[in-house]
Amino acid sequence: MSEFIFEGLDKETFDHKNDYSYQKKFGRGLSKDLIRQISADKNEPEWMLEFRLDSYQKFLDMDMPNWGPNLDELNLDEIVYYAYDNEADKDAKTWDDVPEDIKNTFEKLGIPKAERAMLAGVGAQYESQVVYHSLKEEWELQGVIFEDCDVAIQKHPELFKKYFMKCVPNTDHKFAALHGAVWSGGTFLYIPNGVKMSQPLQAYFRMNAPSQGQFEHTLIIVEDNADAHYIEGCSAPKYGSSALHAGCVEVYCGKNSRVRYSSVENWSKDTFNLNTKRAIVNENAIMEWVGGNMGSGVTMLYPCSMLVGRGARADHLGIAFANAGQNQDTGAKVSCLADNTSCNIVMKSLSKGGGLSTYRGHLFVAPNLKGVAAKVECDALILDPISKSVTIPKMDIRSTDVVIAHEASAGKINPEDIFYLTSRGVSQEQAEAMVVNGFIEPIIKELPLEYAVEMNRLIELEMEGSVG
């Protein structure tokens, strides 16, 4: 089944381009007039327009990040912050209602097949507009809400306002403020008390036009004693001009809940991926982050877990692949703010072709806590002499009743392993791929089978031509 869903994935699949003449009617750069246009187009309540304008001012007042990857090549005045295809009906409920070229793009990516085979619901966003959204009736009857955020603010205004950008405020950093000003589309997921979803939900975000910006908002609320698994995927073709992704993910985990957020990010090398993801984890809840980052030229992404309830737990599992011309600056942030909280962070990075992969982590343990346990493991595999890997862990431990462990390793593929495999008839390229697959296996195995196949295929595409 998994091979059927994602059969035929190749570089052309992700680099496929549709006509983008619709973009011509949208201007480049950011202004109050644009923000007012976005809010008016969406018929938003007055409080949201005020929030957008406040975020815009904060964005203007804040400095660019002065740490991490160099962002000098990102010209914010050349980005198209808001654009959509007039031919696309908003939030179509069947794929037949989606324009043919857009539908074909998602067909190539395997999204409709995955929905039919194993998903409880799917959302699909194209540029600034959600073009498809669906949830199986059995989950609707249990009170699950799975909507485009543009729809949720209309249909569930009080619930939306209660949680929107409370976990990630617009004061957080410059690109959180930018997101607050121009966000569009995304996912609103609400799981009622006690509902345990046996099937995952997925949203897929696609940029098509050059110099495009995408700013989807993902808001996940899982009430007490409930379970959910949400998967995000994303991609964009390459044009040779900078694109920007500055989405935001907020997750609220109720008491005794379990939430898994999986992502497979494969933006083009044109893209600056400056995403913010954060969860608030209450008493005895479990938050799991599983992610793979490839494609984008520059990534700054550090999923964060705020363990605010006694017994809360966070697991962070991630892969980053930095190829030629890529700077993958990724990691995890965990704050232990209650007794008996715990976390496990496992990050794997691969570098080839002169790529730079950086693990940047931050573990904080508040004062006077008891029974806190944390383990951090970051491993790097460097595939040639010109690539680099850097580890920058930060630990701020202010309690004494804690167990903290940190492990880090960096190395190259062992020539003896390659010799052993090639001496038994395996080609050198296959042998190297087998070693890489073994290295990333602890992360891959945590994805649903269909998405593990997709992740492996993406890494195979990155590995092509790496021998020698």
What would a concise description of this structure say?
With 468 residues, the chain is α/β, with parallel strands linked by helices.
Uncertain spans: none
Q: What's the number of extended β-strand segments?
A: 23
Overall structural class, as computed from helix and strand content, comes to alpha/beta
Count of structural domains: 1
How many whole angstroms does the radius of gyration measure? 21 Å
What would the principal axes of the Cα set say about the shape? globular
Helix content: 25-40%
Terminal-residue CA separation: 35 Å
Strand content: 35-45%
Arithmetic mean pLDDT: 92
- The helix count comes to 13
Largest sheet: 13 strands, mixed
Please give a structural write-up.
25% of the residues lie in helices and 35% in strands. It has 468 residues and is of the alpha/beta class. It has one domain (14-421). Strands 3, 4, 6, 7, 9, 10, 12, 13, 15, 16, 18, 20 and 22 form a 13-stranded mixed beta sheet that branches. The protein has a ten-stranded mixed beta sheet with strand order 2-1-5-8-11-14-17-19-21-23. A hairpin with a 2-residue loop joins β1 and β2 (129-135). α3 (32-41) packs antiparallel against α4 (46-61), α8 (149-155) packs across α9 and α11 (415-422) crosses α12 (428-444).
